[in-house]
Each structure stands twice: as structure tokens, then as C-alpha cells.
Specification:
Helix content: 25-40%
Order of helices and strands: HHHHEEHEEEEE
Structural class: alpha+beta
Strand order of the largest sheet: 4-3-2-1-7
Strand content: 5-15%
Oligomer: single chain
Number of helices: 5
Number of strands: 7
Shape: globular
Length: 211
Amino acid sequence: MWGIWVVGMLSVLGVAIVVSPLFVRQRGGPGHELVRAVNDLRQVGLALSDFDYEYGSFPNDSTIAVLKAGFPGDPTPLGRRSSNDYFRQLFVSGIAWDEKSFHAGFSPKPDGFTGSRALEAGECSFAYVRNVAVLDPDTPLVVFPLVKGSLKADTKLCAKWGNKAAVLFVDNRVITLPVDSSGQVIFKGRDLFDPAQPFWHGTSPDVVWPE
């Protein structure tokens, strides 16, 4: 019996030793907010991919009319001002139903109400690149955290995570990229939003920010 008890205790301690660091990484430490954002962006990426499969593109200006025609009684507001507006298309289509995936953990947190109250101001954290004409695998779709009205990252937030930002690409990769002291998100040696990046095809990215 003593031997069985010892083996049992060692098993419990072994589980604790294995699980505890994982628990700490998920729930504590300065980088846990970025880890959560990366996980949320993966969920958003899956929803965007499903939308693209269903409607032939990611949410853009032209899909607004398609959704209004297909769901005439849906009260969800659709517009062109913010990333909230474009992400709401995922709710109208029925592809998304949980607001939490669009929020990186800062207050105020999503209240869970959809329909006319889907992704209200403060319930979305991510900037969205809309109306991309030509899609390469390296084309960014969603970026966090961008300063509202700017193509630069929030350096104060990024400093908490080792000067990193999170980016979802059209091929559903989510990558953390370095952020320089000016707030530029660096990808392959230059600013992610530099029109000279080959995936922008010489045009300036059309970005909308959360409300």
C-alpha cells in the first residue's frame, strides 16, 4: 500500500510539474495578452476563410449588398467606417456568433449580444485590411495593435510583449512580428504597410480601425 501511495503522489507531482508552467504562460506574465490575441486571430482567420469560401471574397464593400439581400430581416448594422462594420458581416452570414474572438482582452469586454448590438464600440480590438484586389499568401488581413487612424503599432502595448505585434495573413497564418521604436511593424526587413511590399502591388493598403 505504501508503494502504491508513493507512486500515486509522484504521479500527481509530475502532472503538477508539467501543467503549472503551461498555466502560468496562459494566465500570467507580461505576454499573456499577446498570446490571447494570437489565439483569437486564429479563430477570426477561420471565420474569414469560411466567409471567403461562401461568398468568394473576404468581407468587403461589395458583400454588404449581398448580405442585405440574402438576410433582409437581419438587424445587424453593416457599414464601411470601421473594422467592426466589416467583421459584423461574419455575424450576419451566421459564420461567427461569439464576439469574444474579436476582442483581445481589454475592457470593456464584449457583452455577448449580437444582432443590432453585434460588435459595439469597444468590443473589437483588431484593424482590418479591406477591399484587397489581389491576394498573395503574404497579404495581411488583420493586425493588432494599431493606433487608430495610423499604420503604426501601439508601442506602449507592444513593449509589454517584447516589442511584438500580431498579424493574420490571407493564408491563415498568424505571426508575431517585431515593432521598431517608431511603431513600424517589420516584415521581411521593411514596414509591413510600405506600398513597396510586393503583396500591395504598388497600392497603399486600405485599413479600417476598431470603433
